[in-house]
């Protein structure tokens, strides 16, 4: 049985670092050899700092996959859709590698990132390094609980991980959409709590869905509830904060590429049953979007030997 990357379905942590890397020309063979070493590196640190709950994810960009692994490609692994609704631009960018390190100790994450970058010295260049953190009791800068509608327990694995019956080679892997969004906090705070709850579709304190009579057809929650089971995804989100901007770093995981596309189209108001774009998007600007596939550890290890 394929060994999936534990960071995909792991419980939330207090901190996370996101490394967006581009490979230098001609380094594919060395990268194939070194990518599975990341899980070994994280395992060693996890044993040494057991209280940190350290996990990680390695994902390969849709644009880079065939260069790195020319003999096999996940079904329907495509670039992030270049869609636009009104003035909302998704800003798709081709990124070769995404490495996520999560833990309850920021110092342990720092050690892990330093060792990972040392491992890949001379093979990649850092496009960006982003830092996320847990805010209050799992909320984002809207003040609302983040993703209270997320799949839980065993459903996570069904939603996020490729089934062996569908794609034996890529079983235990996951399709990934990455988005870095800035948030207009000043405009949001000019709204009353009732107006904010109408946009979100659920109660600000408890996270419980508003009664049907109160639900706006394009509320954030309504755009999710209107999806069918084939479009269910697992979301990992963390706020980020800098002096001049703040927002959210969001990872969407799914067992199929189609689920991610359906979810995105629904949120943008482009699907057949959509009533319009998610109202929450009016308060966000996408800084970067990218598509990846996070293969199983078993695939990474086997490919390093080929």
What topology emerges from the helices and strands here?
Layout: E1 15-23, H1 28-48, E2 55-61, H2 65-68, E3 84-85, E4 88-89, E5 97-103, H3 106-119, E6 124-133, H4 154-160, E7 174-183, H5 185-189, H6 193-200, H7 220-225, E8 234-241, E9 246-254, H8 257-267, E10 284-294, H9 297-305
Antiparallel strand pairs: 1-5, 1-6, 2-5, 2-10, 3-4, 7-9, 7-10, 8-9
Summed up, the domain count is: 1
Helix content: 25-40%
Let me know the average pLDDT. 94
Count of DSSP H/I helices: 9
Keywords:
eight-stranded antiparallel sheet, 10 strands, 306 residues, two-stranded antiparallel sheet, globular
Describe what this molecule looks like in 3D.
By secondary structure, the chain is of the alpha+beta class. It has helices at 28-48, 65-68, 106-119, 154-160, 185-189, 193-200, 220-225, 257-267, 297-305; strands at residues 15-23, 55-61, 84-85, 88-89, 97-103, 124-133, 174-183, 234-241, 246-254, 284-294. The protein has one domain. The chain is 28% helix and 25% strand. It has an 8-stranded antiparallel beta sheet. Strands 3-4 form a two-stranded antiparallel ribbon. The mean pLDDT is 94. GO terms for molecular function: peroxidase activity. Its cofactor is heme b. It comes from Rheinheimera baltica. Residues 138-297 form the Dyp-type peroxidase C-terminal domain.
């Amino acid at each position: 049985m394929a060994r999936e990357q534990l960071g995909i379905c792991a419980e939330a942590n207090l901190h996370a670092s996101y490394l967006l890397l581009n490979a230098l020309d001609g380094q594919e063979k060395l990268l194939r050899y070194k990518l599975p070493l990341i899980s070994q590196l994280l395992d060693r640190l996890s044993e040494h700092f057991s209280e940190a709950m350290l996990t990680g994810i390695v994902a390969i960009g849709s644009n880079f996959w065939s260069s790195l692994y020319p003999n096999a490609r996940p079904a329907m692994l495509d670039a992030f859709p270049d869609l636009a609704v009104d003035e909302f631009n998704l800003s798709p960018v081709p990124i070769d590698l995404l490495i996520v390190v999560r833990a309850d100790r920021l110092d342990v994450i720092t050690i892990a990132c330093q060792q990972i970058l040392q491992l890949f010295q001379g093979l990649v260049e850092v496009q960006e390094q982003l830092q996320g953190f847990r805010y209050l009791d799992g909320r984002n800068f809207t003040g609302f609980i983040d993703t209270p509608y997320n799949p839980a327990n065993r459903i996570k694995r069904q939603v996020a991980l490729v089934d062996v019956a569908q794609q034996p080679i890529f079983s235990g892997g996951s399709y990934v959409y990455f988005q870095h969004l800035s948030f207009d906090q000043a405009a949001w705070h000019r709204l009353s709590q009732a107006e904010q709850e109408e946009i979100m579709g659920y109660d600000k304190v408890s996270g419980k869905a508003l009664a049907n009579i109160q639900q706006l057809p394009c509320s954030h929650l309504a755009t999710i509830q209107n999806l069918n089971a084939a479009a269910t995804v697992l979301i990992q989100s963390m706020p980020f904060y800098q002096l001049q901007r703040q927002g959210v770093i969001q990872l969407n995981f799914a067992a199929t590429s189609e689920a991610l596309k359906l979810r995105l189209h629904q949120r943008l108001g482009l699907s057949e049953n959509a009533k319009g774009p998610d109202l929450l998007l009016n308060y966000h600007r996408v800084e970067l979007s990218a598509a990846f596939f996070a293969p199983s550890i078993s695939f990474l290890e086997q490919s390093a030997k080929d």
